[in-house]
Design brief:
By secondary structure, the chain is α+β, with helices and mostly antiparallel strands. The chain is about 35% helix and about 15% strand. Strands 1-2 form a two-stranded parallel ribbon. It has one domain.
């Protein structure tokens, strides 16, 4: 299951969130009650 994080108000905040998303992906968390692994992605501005 992909969780898309939309751009934050500043590039600095996006830069700060990227390592958090990578760390969350490293945990290989499964969504409760399913076999779906959570994958966090950070998307740039449209």
């Amino acid at each position: 299951m992909t969780v898309r994080l939309h751009p934050l108000p500043s590039r600095l905040q996006d830069t700060a969130v990227q390592p958090l998303a990578e760390e969350l992906n490293a945990t290989e968390t499964v969504f409760p009650g399913t076999g779906l692994r959570l994958i966090f992605t950070l998307h740039g501005p449209p």
